[in-house]
Write a structure and sequence with these properties.
Subcellular location: Cytoplasm
Number of strands: 27
CATH topology of the largest domain: Rossmann fold
Main location: cytoplasm
Strand order of the largest sheet: 12-25-26-27-23-24-13
Distance between the termini: 46 Å
Radius of gyration: 31 Å
Organism: Neglectibacter timonensis
Number of helices: 12
CATH architecture of the largest domain: 3-Layer(aba) Sandwich
Helix content: 10-25%
Pfam families: tRNA-synt_1c (PF00749), tRNA-synt_1c_C (PF03950), tRNA-synt_1c_C2 (PF20974)
CATH superfamily of the largest domain: HUPs
Number of domains: 3
Subunit structure: Monomer.
């Protein structure tokens, strides 16, 4: 599809933009064409935070230039692929806010065309059937000073055509033969030393069933698919840079409707986690986590369940930039981006995670009143809510200390604190059980301090949150930490570095009653505690479950 490009006002944000501008500008290889990109995941697992960067680059580049981006499932390896992953990938991309409209494809859509392309290569003398085993092929691949060898390289094309058609018909067992491109056995780029482009695999495919028993290799399928979809710019991670000559070779030697350009960018690495699909699958199948969407996982569905927002992930991807050099980003920066978003948007509520009873002894029994509390100081338009207050409250256990340490300004006998938005109270003592555990704290309130300000102007050093005991609702709260204890668990056996304390579950937490209508995925700031969201799998109106998304305190130091 072609239309005139107007490059005025398009600000380049990275080197890819510069290449695209050059290509679609006057005299460029894509002059007059609409920018067309694609995101081509293999449906053999769930997308993770590293994929978010690729999604941002593929869809974002198209957006900036007024182009379009396809979604394509590279389903050329039937043994590892499943419709479950297809559905999950689509859901994750939509959640991030990107849309492929009606441009959804599978590599398997092109199986017949790829097969015909392979026949064309054989006819041209540019491909041949090889009977070397993988071990033999490896032994004969040569080195930087020695060319590779293959006894089948000069096989007559008629013989290769016959054998390839018989491979297609299912005459041979797995591994018996391959189809190789005939390029240059002495090439300094080993990817050009007659690479395999088809192998035999009698596996059931999630879309085509048993129709095919030969499947194209990714390096052959990838340029073929791009060209069939008239992609202008094929944006890939950096490990495909050495594969680009073969990408261009396929485009040049097979009759195809377009000539895409491949451009590579650096992958995104993050510390304190792993992002290999194989390793993530091991975590799931080994029972080390509670599924692909476990909130400790770097998968997009795991991050979503933990409370990450599309805006935070898109901001994270954008701020990391696009480069040609691989780098590792602090996990703390991802948390920083989430904290920024939630600090601005999340409603403030009161929740007591480790409750102990607070009795206001001079407050009239049976009396209740309400206080108006702002929902979000950043957004006055979010309004206010009313919270119930009475004689008995819940407070955090750590907000009382019978014998205070130096610098402790919360509740202890004789000390005053402010109850958030309510009254000033003075601690008068506590009650303990037989084991010596504090089960009740007593205090007296200053009835003239409604709203939290003393009538005589005295200064109160500490403010604590609370929840009314008669109005509170119970909830389960899950506190998550890094899944691994070291920054780089990829070094060595990653399972040796699992953090056994990465999940703490708190039961019978006390929350203000306004949260009883909270919906799955909805985020809140629990005052003084952190940011939490309603778990989208296990929570229900009858049994609320909240996940801590991120702490209040920001450990990330910009420019570090």
């Amino acid at each position: 599809m072609s239309e005139e490009n107007n490059l005025d006002g398009i600000v380049s944000t990275n080197f890819i933009d510069e290449f695209v501008k050059e290509d679609i500008g006057p005299g460029g290889r894509c002059e007059g064409m609409r920018v067309h990109t694609r995101f081509p995941p293999e449906p053999n697992g769930y997308l993770h935070i590293g994929h978010a960067k690729a999604i941002y680059i593929d869809f974002g580049t198209a957006e900036r230039f007024g182009g379009v981006c396809n979604l394509r499932m590279d389903d050329t390896n039937p043994a590892k692929e499943d419709v479950e992953y297809v559905d999950a990938i689509k859901e994750d991309i939509r959640w991030l806010g990107y849309d492929w409209e009606d441009r959804f494809y599978f590599a398997s859509d092109y199986f017949e065309a790829m097969y015909q392309g392979a026949l064309e290569l054989i006819e041209k003398g540019l491909a041949y059937v090889c009977e070397l085993t993988p071990e033999q092929m490896k032994a004969m691949r040569g080195d930087l000073t020695t060319p590779a060898t293959c006894p089948y390289r000069d096989r007559p094309k008629e013989e290769s055509l016959d054998l390839f058609k018989r491979m297609r018909a299912g005459e041979f067992e797995d591994g018996r033969m391959t189809l190789r491109a005939r390029i240059d056995l002495a090439s300094g780029n080993f990817n050009m030393r007659d690479p395999v482009i088809y192998r035999i695999n009698h596996a059931e495919h999630h879309r085509t069933g048993s129709e095919w028993c030969i499947y194209p290799m990714y390096d052959y399928a990838h340029p073929f698919e791009d060209a069939m979809e008239c992609i202008t710019h094929s944006l890939c991670s950096l490990e495909f840079e050495d594969h680009r000559p073969f990408y261009d070779w396929v485009i040049q030697n097979v009759t195809l409707p377009s000539k895409p350009r491949q451009i590579e960018f650096a992958r995104l690495g993050i510390n304190n986690t792993v992002m290999s699909k194989r390793k993530l699958r091991s975590l799931v199948e080994g029972g080390y986590v509670a599924g692909w969407d476990d909130p400790r996982m770097p998968t997009l569905c795991g991050l979503r369940r933990r409370g990450y927002t599309p805006a935070a992930i898109r901001n994270f991807s954008e701020r990391n930039g696009v480069s040609k050099v691989n780098s590792t980003v602090e996990y703390a920066f991802l948390e920083h981006c989430l904290r920024e978003d939630l600090n601005w948007n999340a409603r403030r509520v009161m929740a007591v995670l480790d409750p102990v009873k607070l009795i206001i002894t001079n407050y009239p029994e049976g009396k209740t009143e309400t206080f108006e509390v702002e929902n979000n100081p950043n957004k006055p338009e979010d309004g206010t809510r009313e919270v119930v207050f009475s004689r008995e409250l819940w407070i955090e256990r750590e907000d009382f200390m019978e014998e205070p340490v130096k610098g402790y300004f919360r509740l202890f006998p004789g000390n005053e604190v402010r109850l958030k938005t309510a009254y000033i109270v003075k601690c008068t003592g506590c009650k303990k059980d037989e084991a010596g555990n504090v089960i009740e704290v007593t205090c007296e309130y200053d009835k003239d301090s409604r709203g939290g300000n003393a009538a005589d102007g005295r200064k109160i050093k500490s403010t604590i949150h609370w929840v009314d005991a008669s109005d509170a609702i119970d909830a389960e709260v899950r506190i998550y930490d890094n899944l691994f204890t070291v920054e780089n668990p990829e070094e060595g056996n990653f399972l040796d570095y699992l953090n056994r304390d990465s999940l703490e579950i708190l039961y019978n937490c006390k929350l203000e009653s306004t949260l009883k209508t909270a919906k799955p995925g909805e985020s809140f700031q629990f005052m003084r505690q952190g940011y939490f969201c309603v778990d989208n799998r296990d929570s229900s109106p009858e049994a609320l479950v909240f996940n801590r998304s991120v702490k209040l305190k920001d450990s990330f130091k910009p420019g570090k």
